[in-house]
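Changelog excerpt

This revision adds worked examples to the README so contributors can see how folded entries look when concatenated. The first example is reproduced verbatim below.
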Amino acid sequence: MSEALRDWNDHYATGHLPWDTGKASGHLTRLVSERGLSGKALDVGCGTGTNSLWLAGHGFSVLGLDIAPLAVEAARAKAEQAREPECRFEVLDFLSEEVPGGPFELVFDRGVFHTFDAAETRARFAARVAELLTPDGLWLSLLGSTEGAPRDTGPPRRSARDVADAIEPALELVELRATTFDSDMAWPAWTCLSRRRAQPAQPSSRRD
């Protein structure tokens, strides 16, 4: 078992899940409602399946992925109880394994993209998303920001530059908005919305 897998699985084994609110992300529900989205959705780092099940209940065919087997086990149990056939869950490493069922009209991650400290790994994550989106597909990411007071706990913190540097080569940045996590702690966060590029990013220019 890899170090990353052991760490995440241990959280689910002990029940220490500060990110699991038991409610669908308001950022996700607003996006779907405001844009009238539908089709196939990919929930990366689905945890116990709350957001995946909400999407399935609102017309999406959903694939939820998580690296932690115990998370997927819990998500499958919830899907069975909800009798939701349009929602399936798989144990899968998003960065290194083939993702079945694409392309997707919507990719969502709540607090996954920001867990990678290395800039090149965040860029690889964004490139993987780009490969899996339909031509009009959208990626919504909720991630910790560098705004707010100093702290020693809570989600990882990423700057606007960190986000743009990772996303811009592979995807078009639609919106980066300062917000908070939809949780009791209300940590400062970004919502980042991006889409597949119609043409490659152009080099930065300078005035002669």
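The second example, added in the same revision:
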Amino acid sequence: MAGGVDVTTFELTAMAIKLGIVLLILLHVAPIMVWAERRICSWMQNRTGPNRVGPFGLLQPLADAAKFIFKEEYVPAHVRKGFYELAPAVSIIPAFLTFAVIPFGPSIDIGGNLVHLQLADLNVGFVYILAISSLSVYGTIMASWASNSKYAMFGGLRATAQMISYELALGLSLVSMIMVYGSVSLQEITQAQGEVFAFFPSLPKWGVFLQPVAFLIFFISIFAETNRLPFDLPEGEAEIIGFHVEYGGMKWSSFFLAEYLHMTTAAGFLTAMFLGGWQMFPGMYTAIVALGLEGDALYWTMVGLRVLSFAIKVMVILVFFIVVRFTLPRFRYDQLMHLGWKVLVPIALVNIVVTAYMISFGWL
């Protein structure tokens, strides 16, 4: 018992609250990102952007959602219906599951009970994300095969080859991070990034500073993994192909939502591994101390700012996704595969060897 509440009841209640908050946020990611994408694109191209539905066009995503919900669910006669219906679910479910191990805040003490601001504090969280996120490729290839269309199949084969290729580079880039931090738990890796360099006390030991090469490889790889420009060849609207070319209505929007969910998880994963996770930005702690807060006020202010720091880092990465989309042209497919297999993978392998060498001499 803790504070008159059974421990099991408290844990179940805390889990239900965390699950509700995370689901609420994830479900709102797609409409917010759609609005931001249109608005940022309009700024970059000197256009007005959405401005009709609601103030500043903020209600445009709701109008789009209503359109998809009430749009006729047309199923082409030539598709393989069972797999055709199942493919959107296979794509979207892993997108929800992968965020479960992303720590979005520190562990907090509530009435003597420790609550992790993380849905599942797995000691193999790093492996869990790679395993579950790789399942989404089955939804892609299932959709393309079930569509029974050569254009959909072209997109599905491209997506499968691309995602498998860049998963290798992505995984190898993270091996050096495991070597540096000595753990595969995202919570432990985030906590380790709270330390500072002895020769530069104002610089935190974030992964991006310890492993800049791994950060760059990981950052490029998540663009390919999420099928975002300049790696959006699986969709290739200009070439009239795409693994979901035979889909419409809510089924198509499920693939659309899955893409934004994967982007959010990738941004959270990148933040946890390389940008300090929920660790505050340099200088924030000094500013809090200057306010003269004490006791519970100081404790909960620290918790709130750590969660806010994580959210800001994720939002900055998502905005960068958008900026890149309207800045860089699409790669040719041979260029995409060349970059993955002949550039990123060899560099990641060399980085692992160099990291092992530096650790053996105590330089890391």
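Reviewer comment on example two: The CA atoms of residues 146 and 271 lie 36 Å apart. The chain has one domain: 75-360.
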